[in-house]
Amino acid sequence: MILKVKDNFYYLLRKWPTIIIVAAIGGAIGLAVAIFKKPTYDAELTFVLDDEKGGGGALSAYAGIASQFGINLGGLEGGEGLFTGDNIIEFLKSRRMIQLTLLSKADFDGKKELLVDRYVRVNKLDKDWDRNDKLKDFQFVADTSRNFLQDSLIAEYHKSIIKDDLLIDKLDKKLSILSLKVTSKDELFAKAFCEKLITNAANFYVKTRTKKSQDNLDVLTKQVDSVRKELNSAIGGVAAASDANPNANKAFQSLSVASKRRTVDVQANTAILTELVKNQELARMNLRNNKPLIQVLDRPILPLEKNKVGKLTGIVLGGFIAGFLCVIWLTFKRILKGILAA
Question: What residue segments make up the domains of the chain, in order of their start?
């Protein structure tokens, strides 16, 4: 084996002109790549998940009191499921979030534009659209209507973004701080997409995790308004009954019945309204307790970090790769020739 390795080494030394020429060609290719390849930009945003498992303390005690009156404040134990653990990473990569972000508008040089239009133009995905009758006059629209062609295009863009442009990971496995990085040839698009994605995720959380709390608050608000209306009516009834008999004869007890009935209504509605107002404030506390889930720590700031291969790096790297492949090819060719000769 040692003799064969030594013999192959001297064989490669005799082929040094070929290896040098191939390495030079590789270096030239690396230089061309470094000159003509457009740089990419990284927009990185770090955020932390608010994983509180419950309101605890006084809020939980108040919830217990509220439940005695048939009021379910809900959500006090904190939400577990979609927004816990590593689920948030897959959620941010989901087609729904990517589609919602691509169909969001952002400000580019003072002009509002859909992110998907910017993405298509930057990556030159529309260069062959004029040759296709279906895509010739196609335009993306930011609405909820079902558009088969638009959905198909965005499905392809989603795959490409997840594969090449989007990276979401934890900075440290022991921490709950996550990093969201978007890579693009356009630094304005990279920054806008990064910020819109995290904003849409936070808004989605508010609409889902707090939905039950918001519904409870809406019901309590309607009940408070209804009881307050009845209380005002009862107060007006007491006044009306008193005005009808300002100097009622005490010998005729029936004359004071209407006023007493309305007074009882006032007392009952006052007690009910007091409890409902308390529960309403508890519901507001619970709603605030569930916000927010995602807290942004660092946002991308222009100018973004540029990824570009330097000329010297391109020459060295291109030459090394080409020379290495040439050595492999010459060795393989010699071995194969020896096998055939045997």
Answer: 16-37+309-327, 39-210+292-307, 213-289
Please state the pTM of the whole predicted model: 0.65
Query: What one-character DSSP code corresponds to residue 39?
Result: P
Number of neighbouring beta carbons within 10 Å of residue 97:
19
- What pLDDT sits at residue 258? 61
Model pLDDT for residues 296-337, shown as the tens digit of each residue = 889 999 888 888 878 888 889 999 999 999 999 988 888 888
Interatomic CA distance for residues 189 and 196, integer angstroms: 10
Whether the link from the prior residue into 303 is cis, omega within 30° of 0, is yes
Q: What is the pLDDT of residues 142-179, one digit of tens each?
A: 776 667 888 889 999 999 999 999 999 888 777 778 89
DSSP labels, 231-289: HHHHHHHHHHHHHHSTT--TT-GGGGHHHHHHHHHHHHHHHHHHHHHHHHHHHHHHHHH
Residues 106, 288: Cα–Cα separation, whole Å? 28
Distance CA 9, CA 3 (A): 10
Compute the distance between CA of residue 125 and CA of residue 157 in angstroms, rounded to an integer: 10
